[in-house]
C-alpha cells in the first residue's frame, strides 16, 4: 500500500457537519419527493421568473480551524484599551461560572422564546428574577423581561407616555443630560410620529404644560446626581408623565426613581456582567407602575398555575401582542435580549444585595478619591455629587489630556474643548485611579498620595438621596453565593427547559438551526468583548474589517447593494427599512406617500412597524392558496397611487410557498410609486437560490438569529440588518459615531456588534456552495416532512408544483370537530414525545407550521414525523371512542413525573401518558409543570418573585 494519495491540505468538513442528513439519507428523502437530485428539486420549487437571480459570489468555504485562525487575526486588530468613556457602557467582570455555564452553554443559548411555558420554566424563572431585580432596584411595581437597548427603551418610554399621559400636548421634554445616543434615537423615533422632542435643561424648566412627558437621566450622562423630587411633582401637576433613565449599579446606593414619583424607569443592565462588546447585545430594562402594565412594551413573565394547581410561569398578556393588535400594537418589539437579561439576573443572584452595594460602594469610593486627586492636580471637577462619573474642566488643553491617555492605552470621554469625561467601574482599583492621575498630571509632576487621599475623602453622594429601602430580599438573591450553588442552580434551570441541545425545534418562520460551536467561540474573546462602542475608530480596526466583510457577504447573499448592521432585531430592521423608504420619498418631494400595503398573512411586526414609521396600513387579502391576491393588490395600489409608500411582503410567503407572481407583485407596487419591502425572515429558503434584491425588492431585513446562525438565546439577542438597493443607501441609519450622523435606530453604531462574528464564521465556513446546499437541504427537509405527514394531516399550502418551500403548514382544524382535539393539545402532547411544538396558529389559526432546517438529521426528522403520526393515531382513538373525548393523553398533556405517583385516575395507562414510544425510555424529557393556565395568570397578574413560602405551600 502506498501513501501517495493521502490528502495533504486540511479538508473543509464544516458543510457536512452543519447539514444533518448524510448523502444516503438525501437520496432517500429525494426519492420521496419524486426527484433524483437536489438541483432538480430546487428547480421545481423556485418559480421560473426568479430563477438565476442569485449571485452568491463568495469564495469556497473554509474548515473550522482555518476560519477560527482567520477571525483570530481579525480580532487581533482590535486594541484593548482601558475604557473610562462611560456614557452608558462600563467594563465589568462576567463571573466565570456565568460565562461558562450560561453564556457559553447551549442549554441556555439555543433555547427559543418561551411561548411554550411547560418546556421553558427554567428561563422563565430566570426572567422573573430579572423582573424582580429591576422592580426592586428602580422602586417600581412592575418590570418587563428586557428591551433591546437603553436608547430604544427611552423611545418606547416616549410613546408609552404619549399613550398614557393626560396632557395631550404634542411635545416631549428631554433633559440634555441624557446620553447623546439616547437623544439621537429619540429624534429618529419621534419624527415620523409627529412628536416634537424638546431638548433642554430641566433645571430651567418652570412650566410643563406644553409636554405630555419628560425624560431625565439619573445620574446625568456627565455624572451629576440631580434631585428630581420637586420637578416630578410639577410635571405631574401639569399632567405630564416622567420617565427616568437610570443606572442600575447607582440605584443600589441612591433613592430609586420609583420613590420620587417616576412613571417609567428604564436603562441598560449591561454592567451587570455583560461584556461591552463594542455596543451590544445588552439587555435594556423598562419598569413602570402597576396601573400601566397593560400598555408596557416587550414581554412580561407572570406567575400562573398549571393543571394541577401548582405555580407555573408563562409569558403574560402581551405575549403575542403584535399578532393580535397589529398596527394598534403598543410596540413592534418581538425578539428582545433574553440571554443578556439572564446574565444580568444571575450576576445579581451571585453577588446578592450586599455584594452589589459593595461593588457600587467601591466604585464610588474610588471615584471620590479620583476626584480629590484631580482637584489637587489643579483641575476642576464639575460635580459636587456624583456616583461613578465626572466631567473635568482641565487645567491643560484637553487635547493633551486625550493624547496622554492614549499613550497609556486609556480612553476618556470626549466632551468638548474644555472638558473631558470619565467613569469608573467594578474592574477599577487603586492602580486605575493612579493611572488616570498620571494622565491628568502631565509629565514630570508627582501624583497625589492615594492612601492619604483615601483617608481624607468622604462620600460624594447627595445625603438627601441616599437609598433607604432594602432590595433583593427574596431568597433567590440570597442563597446562590457559592460557585457550587450557582453552578447547580444554572444546571437545575437549564434542565427544566427544552432547547436545541435536546431535540429539534421545528418552528416555522423562526429557523432554529445549528449554532455551531466554532461560530460561537469568538464572541467571548476579549478582543471582541472589551471594546467600548465609542472608542476611537483606530482601536476598532478588527471590528471594522469584520463588519465590512460581513456587509459584503450579506450583499452577495441578498443581491442588495448596501447593508446596515445597526438594527438589533428583525423588528428594528423593518423600522430602519421603512424609514429608508420614507426618507427616499421625502428626498423626491413625495413625503405625502404614507400608505403601506401589507398582506393579511404578514407577521405582526410588519403592521406594528409601519405604524411606528408614520405609515397607514392597508391590508391586502390572500387567496385560497395563501398567496397575495394580486387583483386586490392592484386595486389597492392603484386606488392609493398618489400616496403609496410601500408594500411589505414576506418571501417565500408566511405560508411557506414561493409565490409565482412575486415579480408582478413588485412591479405593481413600483408602477404605482411604491417601494418594495421584502421581509427576509424566510431567507433560509433562498440563500444561493434566488435573491430578493434581484427580483424586485428595494429593501429587506435579515434575521441573523434565524438564517445566519446566531442562536435565539431564549428570546434574544438578535441582529436584524437591512440590505437596500443603491437608491436607498443614502437613507440607511447613521449614528453620532459614524460618518452619516442622523437617523440612528440603535444606541450603538453597529447595534449588537459582538455577535456578528457568529454570522461571519458561518458564511466563511460554508462559502457560496455550502450556503446554497444549506438552502437546498432546508427545502428538501421541509418537503420530506410534508410528504411523510400529508396522509395524516393535510398540508395547507403548496406551490403549483405541489411542493413547499422551507416550511409547511399542517392543518389541524378538521380534527377539532371530529375529535375535540385542538392545536394546543397536539402542541402539548408533543412535549410528552420530547419535542418543542411547531409554530402554532401563525399565519393561520388552528394550524402548525413546521420548519425543520437543514441541520436536522434524517433520524431526527423521522423521529418527529413518527411522533406526529403516533399523535394522529391517538386523535383517531379519540375520534372513534377508544380514548375518552375529554380525559385522554392529548387533553391532559404534558404529563409530569409527579403525577405518575399516587393514585392514577385516568382511563389510559401511565405508560401511554409518558412513554408513548419505547424509544423515549432511553432519554426522556420531563416537563417540570403540567399544562399552564393562561387565563388564571392574566386575571391574577403577578410578575415578580413570590416569597419562597408561596412555592412551598403550593
Ligand atoms: C421573526 C420574524 C420577524 C421579527 O423578527 P424579530 O427579530 O423577532 O424582531 C418579522 N417577520 C417575520 C416573518 C418573522 O418570522
Features:
single chain, 954 residues, alpha/beta, Aspartate Aminotransferase, domain 2, seven-stranded mixed beta sheet, 12% strand, binds pyridoxal-5'-phosphate
End-to-end span in angstroms? Answer: 72 Å
The CATH superfamily label of the domain at 524-765 reads Type I PLP-dependent aspartate aminotransferase-like (Major domain)
Structural shape: globular
How many extended strands? 26
Q: How is the main sheet built? A: 7 strands, mixed
Spatial arrangement of strands, main beta sheet: 2-8-7-6-5-3-4
Q: What small ligands are held by the chains?
A: pyridoxal-5'-phosphate
Helical/strand content category = alpha/beta
Quick structural summary:
The chain is of the alpha/beta class and 954 residues long. The protein contains 31 helices and 26 strands.
Amino acid at each position: 500500500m502506498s501513501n501517495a494519495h493521502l490528502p495533504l491540505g486540511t479538508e473543509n468538513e464544516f458543510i457536512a457537519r452543519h447539514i444533518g442528513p448524510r448523502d444516503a439519507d438525501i437520496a432517500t428523502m429525494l426519492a420521496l419527493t419524486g426527484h433524483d437530485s437536489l438541483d432538480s428539486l430546487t428547480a421545481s420549487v423556485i418559480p421560473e421568473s426568479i430563477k438565476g437571480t442569485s449571485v452568491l459570489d463568495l469564495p469556497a468555504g473554509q474548515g473550522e480551524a482555518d476560519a477560527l485562525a482567520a477571525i483570530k487575526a481579525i480580532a487581533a486588530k482590535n486594541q484593548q484599551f482601558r475604557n473610562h468613556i462611560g456614557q452608558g457602557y462600563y467594563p465589568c467582570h462576567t463571573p466565570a461560572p456565568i460565562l461558562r455555564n450560561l453564556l457559553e452553554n447551549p442549554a441556555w443559548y439555543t433555547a427559543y422564546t418561551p411561548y411554550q411555558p411547560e418546556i421553558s420554566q427554567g428561563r422563565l424563572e430566570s426572567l422573573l428574577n430579572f423582573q424582580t431585580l429591576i422592580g426592586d432596584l428602580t422602586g417600581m411595581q412592575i418590570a418587563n423581561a428586557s428591551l433591546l437597548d437603553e436608547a430604544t427603551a427611552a423611545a418606547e418610554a416616549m410613546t408609552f407616555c404619549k399613550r398614557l399621559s393626560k396632557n395631550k400636548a404634542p411635545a416631549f421634554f428631554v433633559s440634555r443630560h441624557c446620553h447623546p445616543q439616547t437623544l439621537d434615537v429619540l429624534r429618529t423615533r419621534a419624527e415620523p410620529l409627529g412628536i416634537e422632542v424638546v431638548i433642554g435643561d430641566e433645571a430651567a424648566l418652570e412650566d410643563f404644560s406644553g409636554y405630555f412627558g419628560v425624560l431625565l437621566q439619573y445620574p446625568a450622562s456627565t455624572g451629576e446626581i440631580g434631585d428630581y423630587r420637586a420637578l416630578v411633582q410639577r410635571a405631574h401637576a401639569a399632567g405630564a408623565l416622567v420617565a427616568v433613565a437610570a443606572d442600575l449599579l447607582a440605584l443600589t446606593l441612591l433613592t430609586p426613581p420609583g420613590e420620587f414619583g417616576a412613571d417609567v424607569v428604564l436603562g441598560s443592565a449591561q454592567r451587570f456582567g455583560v461584556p461591552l462588546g463594542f455596543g451590544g447585545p445588552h439587555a435594556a430594562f423598562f419598569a413602570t407602575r402597576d396601573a400601566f402594565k397593560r400598555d408596557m412594551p416587550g414581554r412580561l413573565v407572570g406567575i400562573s398555575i398549571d393543571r394541577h394547581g401548582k405555580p407555573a410561569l408563562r409569558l403574560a398578556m402581551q405575549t403575542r401582542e403584535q399578532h393580535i393588535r397589529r398596527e394598534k400594537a403598543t410596540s413592534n418589539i418581538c425578539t428582545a435580549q433574553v440571554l443578556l437579561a439572564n446574565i444580568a439576573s444571575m450576576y445579581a443572584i451571585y453577588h446578592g444585595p450586599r455584594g452589589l452595594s459593595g461593588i457600587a460602594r467601591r466604585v464610588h469610593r474610588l471615584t471620590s478619591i479620583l476626584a480629590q486627586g484631580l482637584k489637587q492636580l489643579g483641575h476642576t471637577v464639575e460635580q459636587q455629587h456624583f456616583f461613578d462619573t465626572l466631567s473635568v474642566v482641565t487645567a491643560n488643553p484637553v487635547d493633551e489630556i486625550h493624547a496622554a491617555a492614549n499613550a497609556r492605552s486609556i480612553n476618556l470621554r470626549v466632551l468638548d474643548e474644555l472638558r473631558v469625561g470619565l467613569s469608573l467601574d467594578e474592574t477599577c482599583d487603586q492602580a486605575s485611579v493612579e493611572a488616570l492621575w498620571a494622565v491628568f498630571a502631565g509629565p514630570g509632576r508627582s501624583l497625589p498620595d492615594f492612601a492619604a487621599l483615601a483617608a481624607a475623602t468622604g462620600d460624594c453622594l447627595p445625603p438627601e438621596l441616599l437609598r433607604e429601602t432594602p432590595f433583593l430580599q427574596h431568597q433567590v438573591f440570597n442563597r446562590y453565593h457559592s460557585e457550587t450553588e450557582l453552578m447547580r442552580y444554572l444546571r437545575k434551570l437549564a434542565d427544566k427547559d427544552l432547547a436545541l441541545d435536546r431535540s429539534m425545534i421545528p418552528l416555522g418562520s423562526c429557523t432554529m438551526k445549528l449554532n455551531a460551536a466554532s461560530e460561537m467561540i469568538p464572541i467571548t474573546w476579549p478582543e471582541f468583548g472589551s471594546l467600548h462602542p465609542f472608542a476611537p475608530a483606530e482601536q476598532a480596526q478588527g471590528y471594522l474589517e469584520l463588519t465590512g466583510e460581513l456587509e459584503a457577504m450579506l450583499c452577495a447573499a441578498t443581491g442588495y447593494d448596501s447593508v446596515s448592521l445597526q438594527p438589533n432585531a428583525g423588528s428594528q430592521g423593518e423600522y430602519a427599512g421603512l424609514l429608508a423608504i420614507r426618507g427616499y420619498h421625502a428626498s423626491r418631494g413625495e413625503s405625502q406617500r404614507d400608505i403601506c400595503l401589507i398582506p393579511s398573512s404578514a407577521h405582526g411586526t410588519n403592521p406594528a412597524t409601519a405604524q411606528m414609521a408614520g405609515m397607514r396600513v392597508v391590508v391586502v387579502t390572500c387567496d385560497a392558496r395563501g398567496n397575495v391576491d394580486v387583483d386586490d393588490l392592484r386595486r389597492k395600489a392603484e386606488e392609493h397611487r398618489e400616496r403609496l409608500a410601500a408594500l411589505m411582503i414576506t418571501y417565500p410567503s408566511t405560508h411557506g410557498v414561493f409565490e409565482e407572481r412575486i415579480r408582478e407583485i413588485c412591479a405593481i407596487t413600483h408602477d404605482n410609486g411604491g417601494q418594495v419591502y421584502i421581509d427576509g425572515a424566510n431567507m433560509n429558503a433562498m440563500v444561493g437560490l434566488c435573491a430578493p434584491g434581484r427580483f424586485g425588492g428595494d429593501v429587506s431585513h435579515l434575521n441573523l438569529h434565524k438564517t445566519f446562525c446566531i442562536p435565539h438565546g431564549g428570546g434574544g439577542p438578535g441582529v436584524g440588518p437591512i440590505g437596500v438597493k443603491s437608491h436607498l443607501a443614502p437613507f440607511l441609519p447613521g449614528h453620532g459615531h459614524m460618518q452619516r450622523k442622523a437617523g440612528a435606530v440603535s444606541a450603538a453604531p453597529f447595534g449588537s456588534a459582538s455577535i456578528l462574528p457568529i454570522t461571519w464564521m458561518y458564511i466563511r465556513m460554508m462559502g457560496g456552495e455550502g450556503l446554497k446546499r444549506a438552502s437546498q437541504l432546508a427545502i428538501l427537509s421541509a418537503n420530506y416532512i410534508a410528504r411523510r405527514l400529508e396522509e395524516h394531516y393535510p398540508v395547507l399550502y403548496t406551490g403549483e408544483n405541489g411542493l413547499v418551500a422551507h416550511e409547511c403548514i399542517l392543518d389541524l382544524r378538521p380534527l377539532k370537530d371530529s375529535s375535540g382535539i385542538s392545536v394546543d393539545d397536539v402542541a402539548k402532547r408533543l412535549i410528552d414525545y420530547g419535542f418543542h411544538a411547531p409554530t402554532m396558529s401563525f399565519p393561520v389559526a388552528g394550524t402548525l407550521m413546521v420548519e425543520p432546517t437543514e441541520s436536522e438529521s434524517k433520524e431526527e426528522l423521522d423521529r418527529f414525523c413518527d411522533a406526529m403520526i403516533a399523535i394522529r393515531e391517538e386523535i383517531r382513538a379519540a375520534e372513534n371512542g377508544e380514548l375518552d373525548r375529554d380525559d385522554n393523553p392529548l387533553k391532559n398533556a404534558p404529563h409530569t413525573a409527579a403525577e405518575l405517583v399516587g393514585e392514577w385516575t385516568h382511563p389510559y395507562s401511565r405508560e401511554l401518558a409518558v412513554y408513548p414510544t419505547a424509544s423515549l425510555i432511553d432519554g426522556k424529557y420531563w416537563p417540570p409543570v403540567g399544562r399552564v393556565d393562561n387565563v388564571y395568570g392574566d386575571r391574577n397578574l403577578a410578575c415578580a418573585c413570590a416569597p419562597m413560602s408561596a412555592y412551598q405551600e403550593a
